[in-house]
């Protein structure tokens, strides 16, 4: 996890390299975990009376000032500290992750490109760039980026998720299904993997996808939040039950908004499948309103809105 601001300020020039070495060992997961602390409650979201009509109460909370100070310190270190090439690449990458988490994609993309110029074998940076290419509809570039991830790190299972999503939006469903099956096989007790496998398989054969999803449901814990969404897909839970459960068992301030982001997206996908495009568009907008920028559901809600708009314009 990122060091606290007070600790950063306290280190001497003699200890700065030691601190930087510690930072370089920080994994992407640790960076994101720290951000969840720094960004306590980017948005507090409350479900309105009629979600089908897109009614939502959003009470945005400003990001913690410590995040801005952390970014300022990273800027200072990158501008003035003596760093090895590897250290500089990693600091650019870490700053890019922070920018991404607050929706500053252009700044994030610049940092990831810079990181790759310095360290061309940085698989994590290729993964982020592949996501951005997918969001922008540059699918061939996205495939190349994810291929690079898997060439550099064959066990990088989230590259299968992200490449599968890119192939899905690029309308190469059979290849997308193969990637998503590989991703699902990596952890059959992860409800989100089962959901994405279903979403892609349903584009090919919806009856087979429903059959497989019901079989996958038996491997999931009843207490897991993602399980209620799968129950909704199977017709075993109502929309109201999904939103009621979203309020229960919360462990950190941002978790409710995160759950709503997921619920809105996946419910929108069902509405879209049922050709209720206005309802689907409302739910995708609600997913975007949560401002949980680094969630896959938020990333692709805007892509889905564009697809709906394009479909309606062609009718």
Keywords summarizing the entry:
single chain, 315 residues, mainly alpha, two-stranded antiparallel ribbon, 17 helices, disordered N terminus
Briefly, what is this?
The chain is mainly alpha-helical.
In words, what does this structure look like?
It is found in: Cell membrane. Keywords: Cell membrane, Lipoprotein, Membrane, Palmitate, Repeat, Signal, TPR repeat. It comes from Shewanella algidipiscicola. InterPro entries: Lipoprotein_NlpI, TPR-like_helical_dom_sf, TPR_rpt, Ycf3. The chain has 315 residues and is mainly α. The protein is 71% helix and 3% strand. It has 17 helices and two strands. The protein has a two-stranded antiparallel ribbon. A hairpin with an 8-residue loop joins β1 and β2. α13 packs antiparallel against α14, α14 packs antiparallel against α15 (255-273) and α16 packs antiparallel against α17 (296-314). The chain is globular.
Percent of residues in β-strands: under 5%
**Secondary structure tally, helices:** 17
Rg for CA atoms: 20 Å
- Most strands sheet: 2 strands, antiparallel
**Strand order of the biggest β-sheet:** 1-2
Distance between the termini: 50 Å
Q: What integer is the average pLDDT?
A: 84
Assembly type: single chain
Classification by helices and strands = mainly alpha
Low-confidence regions: 1-51, 57-62
Number of strands: 2
Q: Which shape, going by the Cα principal axes?
A: globular
TPR repeats: 123-156
Pfam families: TPR_8
Subcellular location: Cell membrane
Subunit structure: Homodimer.
């Amino acid at each position: 996890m990122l060091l606290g601001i007070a600790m950063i300020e306290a280190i001497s020039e003699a200890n700065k390299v030691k601190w930087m070495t510690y930072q370089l060992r920080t994994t992407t997961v640790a960076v994101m975990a720290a951000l969840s602390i720094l960004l306590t409650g980017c948005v507090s979201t409350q479900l309105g009376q009629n979600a089908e009509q897109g009614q939502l109460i959003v009470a945005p909370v400003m990001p913690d000032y410590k995040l801005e100070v952390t970014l300022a310190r990273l800027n200072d270190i990158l501008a003035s500290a003596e760093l090895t090439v590897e250290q500089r690449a990693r600091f650019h990458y870490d700053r890019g992750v922070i920018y991404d988490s607050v929706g500053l994609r252009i700044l994030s993309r610049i940092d990831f490109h810079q990181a790759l110029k310095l360290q061309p074998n940085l698989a994590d940076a290729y993964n982020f760039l592949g996501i951005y290419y997918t969001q922008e509809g540059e699918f061939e570039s996205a495939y190349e980026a994810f291929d690079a991830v898997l060439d550099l790190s064959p066990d990088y299972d989230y590259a299968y998720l992200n490449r599968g999503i890119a192939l899905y939006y690029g309308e190469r469903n059979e290849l997308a299904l193969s990637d998503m099956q590989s991703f699902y096989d990596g952890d059959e007790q992860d409800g989100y993997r089962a959901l994405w496998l279903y979403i892609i398989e349903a584009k090919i054969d919806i009856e087979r996808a429903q059959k497989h999803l019901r079989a996958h449901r038996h491997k999931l814990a009843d207490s897991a939040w993602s399980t209620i969404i799968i129950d909704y897909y199977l017709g075993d839970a109502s929309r109201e039950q999904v939103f009621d459960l979203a309020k229960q068992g919360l462990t950190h301030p941002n978790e409710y908004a995160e759950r709503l982001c997921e619920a809105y997206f996946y419910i929108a996908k069902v509405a879209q499948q049922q050709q209720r495009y206005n309802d689907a568009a409302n739910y995708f907008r609600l997913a975007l309103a949560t401002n949980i920028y680094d969630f896959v559901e938020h990333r692709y809600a805007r892509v889905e809105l564009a697809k709906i708009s394009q479909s309606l314009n062609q009718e």
